[in-house]
Amino acid sequence: MLGGRPAVALFGFDGGVEVLIDRADGSWTPLDLIAAVDGADANAGIGEVAFGPLGVAATVWTDDYSSGGHIVHSIDGSTVSSIAVGDHIAEPGAVMGVSVSADAILVRVDSPNDDNSETVPTQQVLVGTL
User: Fold this and answer.
1) What are the residue ranges spanned by the domains of the chain?
2) 3-state SS, residue 66
3) Most buried among 15, 20, 36, 65, by the most CB within 10 A?
């Protein structure tokens, strides 16, 4: 539910993801998550999407791989905010999971690979609260 309205994430055959919100008139309106990311263009894509009590959160990938991607969030389906993972985690690897709970948005991020199969891969967790 976003802003009291049903919402759904649809994964297309082409690999694209779209979040739609049911409106009062019965139509479904897309929530433009990519537009929330400064500098995102037609090459940007949406990765994992998670719904929960604090709304929807998703990963958005751009051509700037050093940023670790972006996390976009909407609590009500009308406003969308964005953060670059790299602004909060130094040298981030790939985002490996996003979840939305009643009191936080959790983002699991792999540390960059050290190419040593003898060591255990590490992750960091970025926690966002309202």
Assistant:
1) 7-128
2) helix
3) 36
